[in-house]
Amino acid sequence: MDLLKCYKNQKVVITGGLGMLGSTIAHLLVDSGADITLIDSMLEPYGGNLFNIYDIRDKVTVNFSDIRDKNSLKYLLINKDIVFNLAAQVSYTESLYDPYTDLEINCLGHLNVLETLRKYNPSAKIIFSGSRLEYGKIHSNPVRENHQIVPESIYAIHKYTAERYYQIYHTIHNIDAVCFRISNPYGPRQQMKHSQYGIVNWFIKMAMNGEKIKIFGKGEQIRDYIYVEELAKALILAAINKNTAGEVYNVGSGYGVKFKDMVRTVIEVVGKGNYEFVEWPDDYKNIETGDFIADISKLQKCIDWEPSTDLRSGIKKTYKYYKKYHKWYWD
Ligand SMILES: NC(=O)c1ccc[n+]([C@@H]2O[C@H](COP(=O)([O-])OP(=O)(O)OC[C@H]3O[C@@H](n4cnc5c(N)ncnc54)[C@H](O)[C@@H]3O)[C@@H](O)[C@H]2O)c1
């Protein structure tokens, strides 16, 4: 990426930097000459994993801290140029059973970061990683940013609330904030201990273990799966672009894939595992959003970005990674 040149000498902070997306951004930026600090609370059972940066450990600064801790943020965010504020409780199902933690991290924690910038570093650029789940039920595909928003989980409500904080801090306090609604990411460095995050990764693990994958209904539901490195590139490019301030963008592959085809691809690539069709469980049926394909044209008008890793190639790369390193992700 030519634009990586723009990162030379930039002071970059990535909260949630030891998770999947944060550590992928760090890997892409590490040779750009940027000064990179990763902040992560390493809370269990979230996605923070020091192995995610094993090969760049001596090129980044790591601070074990929590975005709920206002005092440490004041010292960590001062004089920084770009903040990728990715720290989160990521599971929408977990948010339904522990809504307070979701509120504390995904709303209050993000408000802390915004307030810290307003008071001590208002010229920094900040990136927010929201979710396609903010939309709730989908009425028309591909989904544009002006699609109706009726979030259907606590996680989605809090992500949307946080997105509004960012926009208000942009409008009222002139903070250079860019928000993303991310579709389904997958790829290397995601936690694999539980199934609450990306489903593609979880199925890769199941297939590697020779297990039977359950497909709800007929498996016709369509999702937009984005390989994490493509996602990371989009955020990196948007962060350095002057025209993105105050905007909200969908980010996904722009392609829809049926659930059953994703599962079949996983099984073909891994060469193990099988699947069966089962009835929709009630708790999933209630929050199923319907088919989702992101319209990414708004983002593509702004940055020179084309997500070129198709699902099969992304699954191959992900499988290769976990085949080699699985002991750092599961027993
Ligand atoms: N993975 C997905 O399916 C998905 C989909 C849409 C949006 N997102 C968003 O993208 C971002 C990155 O997600 P990811 O997939 O890399 O997840 P991840 O769990 O791998 O990374 C999140 C990181 O945040 C850290 N963290 C959690 N709470 C913290 C706190 N209070 N203070 C500091 N660090 C904290 C975790 O330890 C973890 O390392 C998140 O904001 C997430 O909500 C993820």
Task: Please characterize this protein's 3D structure.
The chain is of the alpha/beta class and 331 residues long. It has 11 helices and 13 strands. The chain has a domain of 222 residues: NAD(P)-binding Rossmann-like Domain (Rossmann fold, 3-Layer(aba) Sandwich), CATH 3.40.50. A 7-stranded parallel beta sheet has the order 3-2-1-4-5-6-11, with helices on both faces. The model has no long low-confidence stretch (mean pLDDT 96). The structure holds nicotinamide-adenine-dinucleotide.
| Bound compounds | nicotinamide-adenine-dinucleotide
CATH architecture heading of the domain at 8-187 and 227-253 and 294-308:
3-Layer(aba) Sandwich
The shape is: globular
Q: How far apart lie the N and C ends?
A: 36 Å
* Multimerization status: single chain
How many β-strand runs?
A: 13
What's the level 1 CATH class of the domain at 8-187 and 227-253 and 294-308?
Alpha Beta
Strand order of the largest sheet: 3-2-1-4-5-6-11
| Largest beta-sheet details | 7 strands, parallel
- Examine the coordinates and then state which fold CATH places here, giving the name of the CATH topology of the domain at 8-187 and 227-253 and 294-308: Rossmann fold
Mean pLDDT: 96
Regions with pLDDT < 50 over 5+ consecutive residues? none
Task: Report the C-alpha radius of gyration, rounded.
Answer: 19 Å
List the total number of helices: 11
The share of residues in extended strands comes to 15-25%
Name the CATH homologous superfamily of the domain at 8-187 and 227-253 and 294-308.
Answer: NAD(P)-binding Rossmann-like Domain
